[in-house]
Write a structure and sequence with these properties.
The chain is mainly alpha-helical and 316 residues long. It has two domains: 82 residues, no CATH class; 221 residues, MetI-like fold (Orthogonal Bundle), CATH 1.10.3720.10.
């Protein structure tokens, strides 16, 4: 087990290194550079001043040399300064990460819980009316665009009913736990509903296939209660293919919640990366994208370890 974990961590480090080079290269090849916005607001700057600034920021060097200098500094914990915020990158990422973690973890747990309940319920009687209703709801959840769902929630619960705030992380001057919870209700519900449909379909299909296996018939023939057959014998085997989907979606939420964070004014990782790219804030955009990659790799490693826990026959 220890050798497997060390091997996977080494592979993840290699993937992260390759991704850092790819992302740095793509950002470096974008039109313009971080000085363009600064120079646009200072029309009187001379050509000598521009050249001196490029030399200070290292923009007069080849792309590979700039990447090497960035990599050496990053390995030492220095990810550079954010040009738009004028502070170290890690100081900008920390509050956005807290917001995204809070939003993502709550919506992720809610979506997985609902998906297991609905998927198992539908799989117990496939083809029945309840299965049809759940499948229709799952297809609707997959098909509905996230921005439209967010708009409908704002229109109904904020504009018409005045039950919940339309945007923001908290109310200015309040900041209490209850106030923060009220601001999280709609973005959490939007993310959870957007993920529940896909999870439900995978869980339903996996449970139906597992319930038809020989060991399930044997468990029933031995007189096990129905709940034990489903929750102990069937669910554990059905979770193996579902874990892959859940692990991949877990990592993508760090950078994929851009629409939800933008619609509800949540200052999270997705919106931060998007704004950094638009503002040519290379250090901030690169660090945010690499962190999202790291989370995806760690989620995949956790899924691999869970495979062996669910089914001891699987050899790491």
């Amino acid at each position: 087990m220890r050798g497997f974990i060390l091997s996977r961590l080494g592979q993840s480090a290699l993937v992260l290194l390759v991704m850092s080079f790819v992302i740095y290269g793509l950002i470096g090849l974008m039109p313009g550079d971080p000085l363009d916005v600064m120079l646009a607001s200072t029309p009187g700057v001379t050509a000598e001043g521009v050249a001196r600034l490029r030399a200070i920021y290292g923009l007069d060097q080849p792309l590979m040399l700039r990447y090497f200098h960035w990599l050496v500094a990053a390995l030492q914990g220095d990810f550079g300064y954010s040009r738009t915020h004028s502070v170290p990158v890690l100081e900008v990422l920390a509050p956005a990460l807290v917001t995204t973690c809070r939003l993502m973890l709550i919506s992720f747990v809610l979506a997985v819980t609902l998906s297991f309940l609905l998927g198992i319920t539908a799989a117990l009687r496939p083809g029945g009316w309840l299965d049809g209703v759940i499948s229709l709801g799952a297809f609707a959840g997959i098909s509905v665009p996230v921005f439209w769902l967010a708009l409908m929630m704002i229109l109904v619960f904020a504009v018409e009913l005045h039950w919940l705030p339309a945007s923001g992380a908290d109310t200015v001057g309040d900041g209490s736990l209850l106030d923060r919870a009220r601001h999280l209700v709609m973005p959490v519900a939007t993310l959870a509903l957007a993920s529940t449909g896909g999870f439900t379909r995978f869980i339903r299909a996996s449970m139906i296939e597992t319930l038809r296996m020989d060991h399930i018939r044997t468990a029933r023939a031995r007189g096990n209660p129905p709940w034990r057959v489903v929750m102990v014998h069937a669910l554990r085997n059905a979770m193996i293919p579902v874990l892959t989907v859940i692990a991949l979606s877990f990592g993508s939420l760090f950078s994929g919640a851009l629409l939800t964070e933008t619609m509800f004014g949540q200052p999270g990782m997705g919106k931060l990366i998007y704004d950094a790219i638009l503002a040519n804030d290379f250090n901030l955009a690169l660090s945010g994208l690499l962190f999202a990659t790291l989370i995806t790799l760690l989620a995949n490693l956790a899924a691999d370890l869970a495979y062996a826990w669910l089914d001891p026959r699987i050899k790491l």
